[in-house]
Backbone:
């Protein structure tokens, strides 16, 4: 234990003097300011909804639309409709006695167009007494589907970006520095060993990740989350990321050589962000990406009704990954980093 | 005792062995000098001895323990001083020693005492990145002895040091010898080897070409001759006598009796000259 404490002291002092702690603090402050003062609670979408032109005989539908409070703008004049459509922010629907036509701006998603089409068809069917609303049952897979506002939704993503990306970068940077100044050769002939080397760097990263998480979450979402569960999750992911960083960093001689790997890693880690923004983006194995687990588990934790059982699966996945990468990093450190080139 | 038998090492991609069939023994309390030019195989041998390179062929034993069976405890009892400075640049001199000492289970020396000994007491709180090359070299040496090692591996320990500091470091090395520490000293500086080592081995192109005490090597490979300077009237003259020729001994004796002798110098060869004689290469 004494050796580990001293190895950690070396790493902590070097990290502080290298500015790693300062960078983490600056990122934390920047994220806190961004969430609190820059990001709005709701985003005004450029898509302003639907504009309807009623060309039916006697404009018989327009009154009905108005009383329905559908939120759509209803016109009976073609000129007014065109003027609204020219703003380029709405989906158009022209309804006449024979049916309706959808006018797209061109950028709308298929989902948007199809839902507008289905809604209009349902509207027309219901007027004819052909609707079957009674038979439509809505069930939710999520027992607590309460939505987070935009500010809150940013928290899991920013948390993942710091803990994962900065953690990965710092772990590898320390290896490259030790190689450059050759202090690693001194460590090689000490009795401290590979496990101490690995664990001291991982522990440093975990400590920084925990402090960052505490500061960032306290100043953004306050006490609206179970901090014990959150810190447990961050602890495991920070260990995992450091092990991955140390494992990969050993095969490269400098940070510039490592740049391509780092970019690839960042790309993979950012994929779950797309899924978070649009759940349609998903592929097999995505759950294995650490950032996915951080983003979605923290998101769930922030919603009312979260319970500890929801932490079991992500923790299990990341703990298994952590053990695998710990073993690999340890083996490579022992045989590669702490030995001379053969 | 360190015993090295038939040590051979091959680097991938090279045609020849970096070290080939090397044999030597180092007794406890002995300073053993390993001399050779750059690329001769000195570092390879040292890296195998300290476990940084795998033992491919041959045997290395410390007392009766094979190098292959040595574990972390082995590193508790060795100290290694590297030729190139390899300190934590962001740490101060004191922190470098203090934290490094913490990596050992055994009792270590007071960093301040060692810093004072190697002349770095005034720079204890200065970051190592601000040290000169010589200061870093001293810090590396200080770190090598912080754990009171039983075996010291010193790679060019006096390189880049001023004469006064070099004298102090040499004295520390001699002190360690008196404490019965075994010292493996790698150098290409013949004067350092001659001054400090009980025995030296010459290595060239991965092979040992000679091994003995500096004195014996000189006797074996040097020329037994004496240069005498004497006064004849107001003129200073000199003459060289080869002692392995019987009649020259008589001539020397005669000269000593009859002339006003100013100086007498033995004409023994230096280790450098012997190395050149044996290998055709210079040490530097």
Residues:
């Amino acid at each position: 234990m004494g050796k580990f404490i001293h190895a950690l002291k070396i790493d902590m002092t070097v990290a502080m003097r290298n500015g790693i702690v300062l960078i983490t603090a600056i990122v934390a402050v920047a994220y806190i300011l961004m969430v609190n003062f820059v990001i709005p609670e709701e985003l005004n979408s450029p898509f302003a909804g639907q504009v309807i032109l009623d060309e039916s005989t006697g404009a018989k539908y327009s009154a009905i639309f108005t009383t329905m409070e559908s939120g759509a703008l209803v016109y009976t004049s073609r000129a007014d409709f065109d003027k609204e459509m020219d703003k380029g922010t709405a989906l158009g629907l022209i309804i006449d006695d024979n049916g309706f036509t959808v006018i797209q701006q061109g950028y709308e998603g298929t989902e948007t167009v199809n839902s507008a089409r289905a809604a209009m068809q349902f509207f027309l069917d219901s007027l004819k007494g052909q609707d079957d609303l009674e038979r439509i049952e809505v069930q939710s897979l999520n027992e607590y589907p309460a939505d987070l506002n935009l500010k809150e939704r940013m928290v899991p993503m920013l948390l993942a970006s710091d803990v994962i990306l900065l953690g990965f970068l710092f772990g590898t940077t320390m290896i490259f520095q030790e190689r450059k100044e050759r202090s690693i050769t001194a460590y090689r002939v000490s009795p401290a060993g590979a496990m101490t080397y690995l664990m001291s760097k991982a522990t440093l990263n975990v400590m920084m990740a925990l402090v960052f998480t505490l500061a960032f979450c306290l100043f953004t979402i306050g006490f609206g989350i179970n901090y014990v569960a959150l810190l447990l999750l961050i602890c495991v992911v920070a260990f995992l990321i450091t092990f991955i960083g140390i494992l990969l960093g050993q095969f490269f001689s400098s940070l510039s050589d490592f740049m391509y790997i780092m970019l690839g890693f960042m790309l993979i880690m950012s994929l779950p962000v797309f899924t978070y923004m649009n759940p349609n983006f998903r592929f097999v194995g995505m759950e294995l990406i650490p950032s996915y687990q951080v983003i979605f588990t923290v998101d769930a934790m922030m919603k009312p009704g979260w319970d500890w059982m929801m932490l079991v699966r992500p923790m299990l996945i990341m703990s298994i990954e952590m053990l695998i990468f710990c073993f690999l990093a340890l083996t490579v450190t022992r045989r590669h980093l702490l030995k001379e080139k053969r | 005792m360190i015993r090295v038998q038939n040590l051979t090492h091959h680097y991938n991609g090279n045609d020849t062995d970096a070290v080939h069939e090397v044999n030597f023994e180092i007794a406890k309390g002995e300073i053993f000098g390993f001399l050779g030019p750059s690329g001769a195989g000195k570092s390879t041998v040292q890296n195998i001895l300290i476990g940084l390179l795998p033992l491919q062929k041959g045997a290395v034993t410390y007392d009766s323990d094979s190098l292959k069976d040595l574990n972390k405890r082995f590193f508790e009892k060795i100290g290694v001083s590297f030729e190139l400075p390899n300190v934590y640049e962001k740490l101060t001199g004191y922190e470098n020693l203090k934290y490094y000492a913490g990596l050992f289970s055994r009792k270590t020396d007071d960093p301040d005492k060692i810093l004072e000994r190697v002349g770095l007491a005034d720079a204890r709180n200065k970051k190592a990145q601000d040290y000169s090359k010589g200061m870093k070299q001293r810090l590396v040496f200080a770190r090598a002895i912080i754990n009171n090692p039983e075996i010291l591996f010193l790679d060019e320990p006096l390189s880049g040091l001023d004469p006064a500091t070099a004298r102090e470091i040499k004295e520390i090395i001699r002190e360690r010898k008196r404490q019965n520490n075994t010292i493996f000293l790698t150098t290409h500086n013949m004067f350092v080897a001659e001054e400090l080592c009980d025995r030296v081995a010459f290595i060239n192109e991965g092979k040992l070409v000679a091994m003995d005490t500096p004195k014996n090597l000189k006797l074996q490979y040097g020329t037994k001759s004496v240069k005498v300077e004497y006064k004849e009237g107001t003129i200073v003259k000199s003459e060289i006598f080869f002692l392995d020729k019987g009649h020259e001994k008589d001539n020397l004796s005669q000269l000593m009796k009859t002339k006003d002798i100013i100086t007498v110098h033995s004409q023994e060869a230096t280790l450098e000259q012997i190395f050149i004689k044996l290998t055709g290469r210079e040490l530097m």
Q: What stands out?
A: The mean pLDDT of chain A is 86. Chain A touches chain B at residues 2-3, 5-7, 9-10, 13-14, 17-18, 181-193, 196, 339-340, 342 (CB under 8 Å).
